[in-house]
Design goal:
By secondary structure, the protein is of the alpha/beta class. It has one domain: TIM Barrel (Alpha-Beta Barrel), CATH 3.20.20. An eight-stranded parallel beta barrel has the order 1-2-3-4-5-6-7-8, surrounded by six helices. The model has no long low-confidence stretch (mean pLDDT 94).
């Protein structure tokens, strides 16, 4: 699967519905601090919206609910990997994206034959408290040399103005949160991201 060069990360199916007309083709649903029942219903809504608009859905963290709802792509952080039934995911044909922050985590991720490897935070971010310092552009190049043809997803503090330098450093994909969710018109903002990515 060839990944689009940009994908938004959102926390609700409503956001997917809002962004769908923009032409986005991949979106990650990342929900925190909700009950499993609430998340399962939200995943079902998100899956239906994505199917209707030809968007690939990635479910963050909730791998059991992804299996239960027939989703085919999950993203797991290093902590999430510890309790995940990776064999069950493979049997179901679910593709996997994995977060990495250092060499040991990268080695672990590569051993799992993921669909992509994510690296972050690239820049300082206010989205959440991070135990890792910003990775910076040189780390992107180092990671890309290590993983070769495997897609490298960059995340953390990424803005539209930084997108060209991100791709020039070696990132294949930019995952975006705040720059889209805080925009006055998120649909227009997504289109701007897609246009800059296409030209990069």
């Amino acid at each position: 699967m060839k990944l689009p060069r940009v994908y938004p990360i959102v926390d609700s199916a409503a956001w997917i519905g809002r962004l769908a007309p923009s032409g986005v083709r991949l979106v990650q649903l990342r929900i925190k601090a909700r009950s499993d029942a609430w998340v399962e219903e939200e995943i079902r809504r998100a899956r239906a919206l994505c199917a209707a608009h030809a968007i690939q859905l990635i479910v963050n963290d909730y791998w059991r609910l992804a299996l239960a709802t027939g989703c085919d792509f999950v993203h797991l952080g290093q902590g999430d990997l510890d309790g995940a039934d990776l064999a069950a995911l493979r049997r179901a044909g679910v593709r996997l994206g994995v977060s990495t922050h250092d060499e040991a985590e990268l080695e672990r991720a590569l051993s799992l034959s993921p669909e992509y490897v994510a690296l972050g935070p690239i820049y300082p971010t206010t989205l959440k408290v991070m135990p890792w310092a910003p990775q910076g552009l040189p780390r992107i190049g180092a990671w890309k040399r290590r993983i070769g043809m495997l897609p490298l997803v960059a995340i953390g503090g990424i803005t539209l103005a930084r997108l060209p330098e991100l791709f020039a450093a070696g990132a294949d994909v930019a995952a975006v949160v705040s720059d889209i969710s805080t925009a006055a018109d998120p649909q227009i903002r997504v289109r701007e991201w897609l246009e800059v990515a296409a030209a990069a």
